[in-house]
Design a protein that fits this description.
This protein is mainly beta and 116 residues long. It is 0% helix and 56% strand. The mean pLDDT is 96.
Length: 116
């Protein structure tokens, strides 16, 4: 079975940092782009960033550029999201995804709460 397990969320003060992890299994990790999405309760999901399978190219939404860093460890089938200089507006449930062509896998989310 395909599994994506996001972890590392929590409560942090504005300006603080968190590191999210996305541990995966059940598919060939190296072949999939990994993405992070977030969702505020009552609102739609939005893409945060993603990283390509092999060359490690990354893409970030403008609001997190310079503060968030996505990375992956293909040997561990795990991706990470380092979040620095967190703002209250970063508060959301964060989800990791694995994408290859039309195949998209979602993990359960991890809650990040940034207090002001």
């Amino acid at each position: 079975d395909v599994q994506l397990q996001a972890s590392g969320g929590g409560l942090v003060q504005a300006g603080g940092s968190l590191r999210l992890s996305c541990a995966t299994s059940g598919f060939t990790f190296d072949d999939y782009a990994i993405g992070w999405f977030r969702q505020v309760p009552g609102e739609g999901r939005e893409g945060v960033c993603n990283i390509s399978p092999r060359d490690g190219n990354t893409y970030y939404r403008d609001s997190v550029k310079g503060r968030f860093t996505i990375s992956r460890d293909n040997a561990k089938n795990t991706a990470y999201l380092q979040m620095n200089s967190l703002k209250p507006e970063d508060t959301a449930v964060y989800y990791c995804t694995a994408t290859r062509g039309f195949a998209v896998y979602w993990g359960q989310g991890t809650l990040v709460t940034v207090s002001s």
